[in-house]
Amino acid sequence: MGALHAGHISLLNYAKPLSDITVCSIFVNPTQFNDPKDLEKYPRPIEQDIALLEAANCTILFLPTVEEMYPDQDEKWHINLQGLDEIWEGKMRPGHFQGVTQVVYKLFNSVQPDIACFGQKDFQQVMVIEQMIKEKALPITIALCPIIRDDNGLALSSRNMRLSEQGKQQALALFRTLQFIKNNVQKIDLPELKKMATNQLETSDGIALEYLAICETTTLQEATVIENNKQYVALVTARVEDVRLIDNMILN
Q1: Which domain holds residue 115?
Q2: Which end of the chain has a smaller Cβ tally under 10 Å, C or N?
Protein backbone atom coordinates (compact mmCIF):
# COMPACT_ATOMS: atom_id res chain seq x y z
CA MET A 1 0.00 0.00 0.00
CA GLY A 2 2.96 2.30 -0.52
CA ALA A 3 5.08 4.25 1.99
CA LEU A 4 7.80 1.77 1.07
CA HIS A 5 10.69 0.92 3.37
CA ALA A 6 13.49 -1.65 3.56
CA GLY A 7 10.97 -4.37 4.47
CA HIS A 8 9.13 -3.91 1.17
CA ILE A 9 12.36 -3.76 -0.82
CA SER A 10 13.44 -7.03 0.82
CA LEU A 11 10.43 -8.68 -0.87
CA LEU A 12 11.71 -7.53 -4.26
CA ASN A 13 15.19 -8.78 -3.44
CA TYR A 14 13.70 -12.12 -2.39
CA ALA A 15 11.77 -12.33 -5.66
CA LYS A 16 14.61 -11.45 -8.05
CA PRO A 17 16.43 -14.82 -8.04
CA LEU A 18 13.09 -16.60 -8.48
CA SER A 19 11.86 -14.77 -11.56
CA ASP A 20 12.87 -12.82 -14.66
CA ILE A 21 10.26 -10.10 -14.03
CA THR A 22 9.38 -8.45 -10.71
CA VAL A 23 6.16 -6.47 -10.35
CA CYS A 24 5.35 -4.24 -7.39
CA SER A 25 1.77 -3.08 -6.94
CA ILE A 26 1.02 0.03 -4.92
CA PHE A 27 -2.62 0.57 -4.10
CA VAL A 28 -4.14 1.96 -0.90
CA ASN A 29 -7.19 -0.28 -0.89
CA PRO A 30 -10.29 1.40 0.57
CA THR A 31 -12.23 -1.85 1.12
CA GLN A 32 -9.83 -3.15 3.79
CA PHE A 33 -10.13 -0.08 6.05
CA ASN A 34 -12.96 -0.37 8.53
CA ASP A 35 -11.99 3.04 9.96
CA PRO A 36 -12.27 5.92 7.41
CA LYS A 37 -9.88 8.02 9.53
CA ASP A 38 -7.22 5.31 9.22
CA LEU A 39 -7.62 5.37 5.42
CA GLU A 40 -7.35 9.16 5.40
CA LYS A 41 -4.17 9.13 7.51
CA TYR A 42 -2.41 6.40 5.52
CA PRO A 43 0.87 7.84 4.11
CA ARG A 44 1.21 8.11 0.30
CA PRO A 45 4.75 9.35 -0.56
CA ILE A 46 4.58 8.05 -4.15
CA GLU A 47 7.62 9.92 -5.53
CA GLN A 48 9.79 8.50 -2.77
CA ASP A 49 8.33 5.03 -3.41
CA ILE A 50 9.14 5.22 -7.13
CA ALA A 51 12.74 6.22 -6.38
CA LEU A 52 13.14 3.23 -4.04
CA LEU A 53 11.71 0.84 -6.65
CA GLU A 54 13.99 2.22 -9.35
CA ALA A 55 17.00 1.81 -7.07
CA ALA A 56 15.95 -1.80 -6.40
CA ASN A 57 15.64 -2.50 -10.17
CA CYS A 58 11.97 -3.40 -9.96
CA THR A 59 10.78 -4.26 -13.49
CA ILE A 60 7.20 -2.95 -13.30
CA LEU A 61 5.26 -0.69 -10.95
CA PHE A 62 1.51 -1.36 -11.10
CA LEU A 63 -0.14 1.81 -9.74
CA PRO A 64 -3.88 1.60 -10.43
CA THR A 65 -6.51 4.12 -9.39
CA VAL A 66 -9.52 3.27 -7.23
CA GLU A 67 -11.71 3.66 -10.31
CA GLU A 68 -9.63 1.11 -12.23
CA MET A 69 -9.79 -1.45 -9.43
CA TYR A 70 -13.45 -0.84 -8.56
CA PRO A 71 -15.32 0.24 -11.72
CA ASP A 72 -18.49 -1.11 -10.09
CA GLN A 73 -18.86 0.76 -6.80
CA ASP A 74 -21.56 -1.70 -5.67
CA GLU A 75 -19.42 -4.77 -6.35
CA LYS A 76 -20.13 -7.63 -3.92
CA TRP A 77 -17.42 -9.96 -2.65
CA HIS A 78 -17.35 -12.71 -0.07
CA ILE A 79 -15.08 -15.73 0.20
CA ASN A 80 -14.97 -18.60 2.68
CA LEU A 81 -11.79 -18.10 4.71
CA GLN A 82 -12.40 -21.03 7.06
CA GLY A 83 -12.80 -18.71 10.06
CA LEU A 84 -9.45 -16.95 9.58
CA ASP A 85 -11.32 -13.67 9.09
CA GLU A 86 -13.15 -14.02 12.43
CA ILE A 87 -10.21 -14.26 14.85
CA TRP A 88 -7.40 -11.92 15.97
CA GLU A 89 -7.04 -9.23 13.25
CA GLY A 90 -10.29 -10.41 11.69
CA LYS A 91 -12.16 -9.94 14.96
CA MET A 92 -10.56 -6.57 15.69
CA ARG A 93 -11.17 -5.27 12.15
CA PRO A 94 -14.46 -6.72 10.83
CA GLY A 95 -14.50 -7.01 7.06
CA HIS A 96 -10.78 -6.29 6.76
CA PHE A 97 -9.74 -9.65 5.30
CA GLN A 98 -12.66 -9.77 2.89
CA GLY A 99 -11.36 -6.44 1.58
CA VAL A 100 -7.79 -7.78 1.44
CA THR A 101 -8.76 -10.87 -0.54
CA GLN A 102 -11.01 -8.84 -2.83
CA VAL A 103 -8.18 -6.56 -3.94
CA VAL A 104 -5.44 -9.23 -3.96
CA TYR A 105 -7.60 -11.40 -6.22
CA LYS A 106 -7.90 -8.42 -8.59
CA LEU A 107 -4.14 -7.79 -8.43
CA PHE A 108 -3.40 -11.47 -9.09
CA ASN A 109 -5.73 -11.48 -12.10
CA SER A 110 -4.10 -8.32 -13.45
CA VAL A 111 -0.49 -9.45 -13.03
CA GLN A 112 -0.90 -13.27 -13.21
CA PRO A 113 2.23 -13.98 -11.16
CA ASP A 114 3.87 -17.38 -10.71
CA ILE A 115 5.14 -16.44 -7.25
CA ALA A 116 3.81 -13.80 -4.85
CA CYS A 117 6.12 -12.62 -2.06
CA PHE A 118 4.48 -11.51 1.19
CA GLY A 119 6.11 -10.39 4.42
CA GLN A 120 5.83 -12.48 7.56
CA LYS A 121 4.96 -9.36 9.58
CA ASP A 122 1.38 -9.64 8.32
CA PHE A 123 1.30 -13.34 9.20
CA GLN A 124 -2.47 -13.72 9.44
CA GLN A 125 -2.88 -11.91 6.12
CA VAL A 126 -0.56 -14.43 4.45
CA MET A 127 -2.63 -17.32 5.83
CA VAL A 128 -5.78 -15.62 4.53
CA ILE A 129 -4.30 -15.20 1.05
CA GLU A 130 -3.16 -18.85 1.06
CA GLN A 131 -6.77 -19.81 1.80
CA MET A 132 -8.06 -17.61 -1.02
CA ILE A 133 -5.63 -19.26 -3.45
CA LYS A 134 -7.01 -22.67 -2.43
CA GLU A 135 -10.62 -21.50 -2.75
CA LYS A 136 -10.02 -19.98 -6.20
CA ALA A 137 -7.60 -22.74 -7.34
CA LEU A 138 -5.05 -20.16 -8.48
CA PRO A 139 -1.70 -21.41 -9.91
CA ILE A 140 0.32 -19.16 -7.59
CA THR A 141 2.98 -20.05 -5.03
CA ILE A 142 3.20 -17.86 -1.93
CA ALA A 143 6.68 -17.06 -0.60
CA LEU A 144 6.72 -16.09 3.10
CA CYS A 145 9.54 -13.56 3.48
CA PRO A 146 11.26 -12.81 6.81
CA ILE A 147 10.36 -9.80 8.96
CA ILE A 148 12.86 -6.96 8.52
CA ARG A 149 13.70 -5.16 11.75
CA ASP A 150 15.75 -2.12 12.62
CA ASP A 151 18.96 -2.47 14.61
CA ASN A 152 17.00 -2.50 17.87
CA GLY A 153 14.47 -5.12 16.76
CA LEU A 154 11.48 -2.94 15.84
CA ALA A 155 9.61 -4.49 12.90
CA LEU A 156 9.69 -2.10 9.95
CA SER A 157 6.27 -0.70 9.11
CA SER A 158 4.91 2.26 7.16
CA ARG A 159 3.05 3.18 10.36
CA ASN A 160 6.37 3.71 12.18
CA MET A 161 6.55 7.08 10.39
CA ARG A 162 3.86 8.27 12.81
CA LEU A 163 5.88 7.37 15.93
CA SER A 164 8.13 9.76 17.82
CA GLU A 165 11.61 8.59 18.83
CA GLN A 166 10.23 7.89 22.31
CA GLY A 167 7.37 5.91 20.76
CA LYS A 168 9.82 3.79 18.76
CA GLN A 169 11.71 2.99 21.94
CA GLN A 170 8.48 2.08 23.74
CA ALA A 171 7.41 -0.13 20.81
CA LEU A 172 10.49 -2.32 21.33
CA ALA A 173 8.56 -3.97 24.17
CA LEU A 174 6.71 -5.99 21.50
CA PHE A 175 9.95 -7.50 20.17
CA ARG A 176 11.31 -8.16 23.66
CA THR A 177 8.12 -9.96 24.63
CA LEU A 178 8.12 -12.10 21.49
CA GLN A 179 11.73 -13.06 22.18
CA PHE A 180 10.77 -13.95 25.76
CA ILE A 181 8.04 -16.26 24.45
CA LYS A 182 10.35 -17.91 21.91
CA ASN A 183 13.07 -18.46 24.52
CA ASN A 184 10.65 -20.05 26.98
CA VAL A 185 8.09 -21.86 24.82
CA GLN A 186 9.64 -25.25 25.57
CA LYS A 187 10.25 -24.46 29.26
CA ILE A 188 6.99 -22.96 30.58
CA ASP A 189 3.41 -24.21 30.12
CA LEU A 190 1.70 -22.10 27.45
CA PRO A 191 -1.12 -20.65 29.61
CA GLU A 192 1.44 -19.49 32.19
CA LEU A 193 3.81 -18.24 29.50
CA LYS A 194 1.03 -16.20 27.91
CA LYS A 195 0.10 -14.75 31.30
CA MET A 196 3.71 -13.73 31.97
CA ALA A 197 4.16 -12.23 28.50
CA THR A 198 0.87 -10.33 28.73
CA ASN A 199 1.89 -8.88 32.09
CA GLN A 200 5.25 -7.88 30.60
CA LEU A 201 3.48 -5.82 27.93
CA GLU A 202 0.75 -4.40 30.16
CA THR A 203 3.38 -3.03 32.55
CA SER A 204 5.53 -1.53 29.76
CA ASP A 205 5.42 2.26 29.36
CA GLY A 206 3.38 3.49 26.42
CA ILE A 207 1.95 0.08 25.42
CA ALA A 208 -1.82 -0.36 25.06
CA LEU A 209 -2.15 -4.09 24.37
CA GLU A 210 -4.97 -5.30 22.11
CA TYR A 211 -4.14 -9.00 22.05
CA LEU A 212 -1.34 -11.51 22.50
CA ALA A 213 -1.70 -15.12 21.38
CA ILE A 214 0.35 -18.26 20.82
CA CYS A 215 -1.18 -20.12 17.89
CA GLU A 216 -0.75 -23.10 15.62
CA THR A 217 0.37 -21.62 12.31
CA THR A 218 -2.13 -23.01 9.79
CA THR A 219 -5.44 -22.45 11.60
CA LEU A 220 -4.24 -19.69 13.97
CA GLN A 221 -6.22 -21.38 16.73
CA GLU A 222 -4.79 -20.55 20.14
CA ALA A 223 -2.63 -23.35 21.56
CA THR A 224 -2.52 -24.62 25.13
CA VAL A 225 0.23 -27.21 24.59
CA ILE A 226 3.07 -27.65 22.11
CA GLU A 227 2.77 -30.69 19.84
CA ASN A 228 5.96 -31.90 18.17
CA ASN A 229 4.47 -32.23 14.68
CA LYS A 230 3.07 -28.68 14.51
CA GLN A 231 4.52 -25.21 14.05
CA TYR A 232 3.59 -22.28 16.27
CA VAL A 233 3.62 -18.49 16.06
CA ALA A 234 3.25 -15.77 18.69
CA LEU A 235 1.06 -12.86 17.54
CA VAL A 236 0.87 -9.45 19.18
CA THR A 237 -0.97 -6.21 18.45
CA ALA A 238 -0.71 -3.03 20.51
CA ARG A 239 -1.05 0.73 20.23
CA VAL A 240 1.84 3.07 20.87
CA GLU A 241 1.08 6.81 20.68
CA ASP A 242 -2.26 5.68 19.21
CA VAL A 243 -0.45 4.00 16.30
CA ARG A 244 -1.59 0.40 15.87
CA LEU A 245 1.41 -1.95 15.55
CA ILE A 246 1.43 -5.67 14.79
CA ASP A 247 4.30 -8.13 15.15
CA ASN A 248 4.87 -11.85 15.40
CA MET A 249 7.55 -14.49 15.78
CA ILE A 250 7.63 -18.10 14.59
CA LEU A 251 8.49 -20.18 17.61
CA ASN A 252 9.82 -23.47 16.21
Answers
A1: 6-145
A2: C
C-alpha atoms less than 13 angstroms from C-alpha of 117 in its C-beta half-sphere: 21
Residues 79 and 167 in one domain: no
Q: Residue 74's pLDDT is what?
A: 87
Question: Which portions of the chain are predicted below pLDDT 70?
Answer: none
The residue from 5, 8, 78, 96 that is catalytic is: 8
What residues have CB less than 8 Å from 204, skipping those under 6 apart?
A: 170, 173
Among positive and negative, which fits the CA dihedral 51, 52, 56, 60? negative
* pLDDT recorded at residue 219: 94
CA distances from 249 to 73, 93, 114, 176 (A): 38, 21, 27, 11
Which spans in the chain are helix H?
6-15, 36-41, 46-55, 66-69, 89-92, 96-111, 123-136, 165-184, 190-202
Instruction: Specify the pLDDT at position 41.
Output: 82
* Of 34, 15, 17, 33, the residue nearest 25 (C-alpha): 15
The structural domain count of the chain equals: 2
